[in-house]
Write a structure and sequence with these properties.
Layout: E1 3-11, E2 20-22, E3 29-38, H1 42-60, E4 64-66, E5 70-73, E6 79-83, H2 88-103, E7 107-108, E8 121-123, E9 135-137, E10 140-145, E11 154-162
Antiparallel strand pairs: 1-3, 1-10, 2-11, 3-7, 4-9, 5-6, 6-8, 10-11
Length: about 170
């Protein structure tokens, strides 16, 4: 069965629900869970997952996060990132979303980096990055379609949970 690739993220830059961006130009973000759902009912699956995620996202909004030291991820450490030290609200959100994905029949794409293997980080993007020691508020959580309408060159924000002052940012 063909699959639809979705991802839950915490955005650390302003975004708006429904916005589309190039796959090469992500706003700064922390990946929560990347997963596939079957395309036979993918629209329904995305809606179901948004409903399941809503209470967990709402509970996590407002948590303070610290930016940690820089590291290199990916093959040969070639992807520069800023680590996010362990934080209970972020870890709980990650685990709750992973459980929601699995209970909905989704397939997590990086199981080794899930639950106890989760290492939150913010990939540097075209010179944009956060610095070690900065504090940020978990104020934008999103469900993103990694290939809207089958177009793998763009991403679309399907659902955004945000603190009230960031709605529509």
């Amino acid at each position: 069965m063909p699959m639809r690739n979705l991802i839950f993220v915490v955005f650390v830059e302003p975004v708006a629900e429904g916005s589309v961006f190039l796959r090469t130009d992500w706003p700064l973000h922390i990946t929560l869970v990347r997963f596939d759902v079957g395309t036979a009912d993918s629209a329904d699956a995305a809606v179901r997952l948004a409903v399941l995620a809503g209470p967990h996202a709402a509970a996590a909004l407002g948590a303070n996060l610290q930016v940690g030291e820089d590291a290199g991820f990916g093959r040969n450490g070639s992807v520069p990132v800023s680590l996010v030290p362990p934080q209970p609200d972020l870890q709980a959100l990650h685990e709750q979303l992973a459980t929601a994905v699995e209970s909905s029949g989704g397939r997590i794409l990086t199981p080794a980096h899930t639950r106890s293997g989760y290492r939150p980080h913010i990939s540097h993007q075209h010179g944009r990055r956060l610095r070690a020691g900065e504090t940020l508020v978990l104020d934008r959580i999103a469900l993103v379609d990694m290939a809207p309408d089958g177009d793998h060159t763009v991403r679309r924000i399907l659902r955004l949970w945000a603190l009230p002052e960031n709605r529509g940012s």
